[in-house]
Specification:
The protein has 391 residues and is α/β, with parallel strands linked by helices. It contains nine helices and 16 strands. The strands form two sheets. It has an eight-stranded mixed sheet with strand order 2-3-1-4-8-7-5-6. Strands 9, 10, 11, 12, 13, 14, 15 and 16 form an eight-stranded mixed sheet that branches. Helix 3 (103-116) links the parallel strand 5 and strand 6 (121-124). The protein is elongated and about 75 Å long.
């Protein structure tokens, strides 16, 4: 089976997450934001709720003989027609390619074929050649009442598929902006990025996970929603711990979770071994303090302070991590005329790349010299560098 994945705004990070989650097949990146997975295992639609970097994904059903409308129609009718004809059926078409395909003719011909089969249909269109996840979801194109036909151009060939699921943008927005405790001043980790970080760790659901800079608890709440059972959080701020407790209670109530098994305690990350047994944690997943988000504090001063904080914390983490344990951690990248990176002391660790070796030379990927991935958007003062360390 072949599956397509439409990647998010940071394709490198999205692909890294996918290769960590689906380690049972072979990935290829065929366009800047499209990955193909060949696997013998079936992928269920609900996995989309646990992968933060994918906009939509689906199953490839065939390769039309040419880009002619008649050949595309022949291939599409094999999988895109509804099983029942007793209700109105919505369909949409997304084309990811550069060759000229007359989508208007294709849509009208498909509608005509449906009508000949006794199916009353509505063609969902957009100003762009591809439908957004919002349009797909709102028009029920991933239910039994609709379909999104996806056409992908690659190596002068077409791949034709059907979308199985789109990113649950409403849920993600609700978890981000609806939660009761937010700290906009210190900066908020987006739930999508928290999911990606958790997935990059490659932890099984029984692993012991720690966030020693838990803040308002985004990593902890996302881990709970993903089904992890042994979650621990700590922070030097009593307010942060209170925010985490409130957000956990809110998530448990709104998403009908069973009783959560988590521990929260007050601690300086640089002294955390006083509270946690040696060699007892499988994974540390965390976004520490990244420096002032506002103001004009000199970057060199912030850099020195953060390198000291991170170096001391990493030295402590080494005491509580199991042998071979991993850390997925964010370090800041300060934006100016040049990007300023930080360099904590990582003695006792090695940096683990998150992109498989066979994909690293792909022209669409952006990986730093130290095998990490940068996450940010234009206009942000501080970008995030996602680093994976192994003890």
């Amino acid at each position: 089976m072949r599956y397509f994945f439409i990647l998010g705004t940071n394709p490198t990070l999205s692909l890294a997450e996918l290769t960590a989650v689906f380690n049972h097949g072979q990935f290829s990146l065929i366009q800047k934001n499209i990955a193909i997975l060949e696997t013998n295992e079936e992928i269920k639609a609900n996995i989309i709720k646990k992968i933060g970097g994918t906009v939509k994904f689906g199953l490839i059903h065939g390769e039309p003989a040419s880009i002619a409308v008649k050949d595309i129609l022949k291939s599409a009718t094999s999988f895109a027609k509804p099983e029942k004809s007793d209700s109105k059926f919505n369909f949409g078409i997304s084309y990811y390619g550069k060759s000229k395909i007359n989508l208007k003719v294709l849509g009208m011909e498909f509608k005509k074929l449906l009508k000949e089969s006794g199916i009353n249909s509505r063609w969902v269109i957009s100003r762009e050649p591809t439908l957004s996840s919002v349009v797909v979801e709102q028009n029920k194109l991933v239910t039994d009442k609709g379909v999104e036909i996806v056409i992908i151009e690659f190596n002068k060939k077409l791949l034709l598929g059907k979308t199985l699921a789109v990113q649950p943008f409403k849920e993600l927005s609700f978890r981000d902006y609806g939660r009761p405790a937010r700290d906009d001043y210190s900066g908020m980790l987006p739930p999508k990025l928290a999911q990606i970080m958790i997935n990059l760790a490659g932890a099984d659901l029984g692993a012991a996970i720690l966030d020693p800079f838990c803040g308002s608890g985004t990593i902890i709440t996302e881990a709970a929603l993903m089904g992890y059972k042994k979650i621990t959080g700590s922070d030097i701020s009593d307010r942060a711990l209170g925010d985490t407790k409130n957000n956990l209670a809110w998530v448990q109530s709104n998403f009908k979770l069973e009783a959560l098994n988590f521990k929260l305690f007050h601690s300086d990350a640089a002294q955390i071994s006083k509270h946690i047994a040696p060699n007892s944690i499988d994974f540390i997943i965390t976004e520490p303090y990244l420096g002032p988000q506002r103001g004009n504090t000199p970057i060199n001063k912030i850099k020195t302070e953060l390198e000291k904080l991170y170096s001391e914390s990493l030295r402590e983490f080494k005491k509580i991590l199991k042998p071979g344990g991993k850390i997925v951690m964010i370090w800041p990248v300060f934006q100016g005329k040049l990007s300023t990176f930080i360099y904590p002391n990582i003695d006792g660790y090695k940096i683990i790349g998150s992109i498989p070796a066979n994909l690293k030379k792909n022209i669409f990927l952006k990986i730093t010299n130290r095998d990490s991935i940068i996450y940010g958007r234009d206009g942000q003062k501080v970008w995030r560098e996602i680093v994976i360390l192994e003890k």
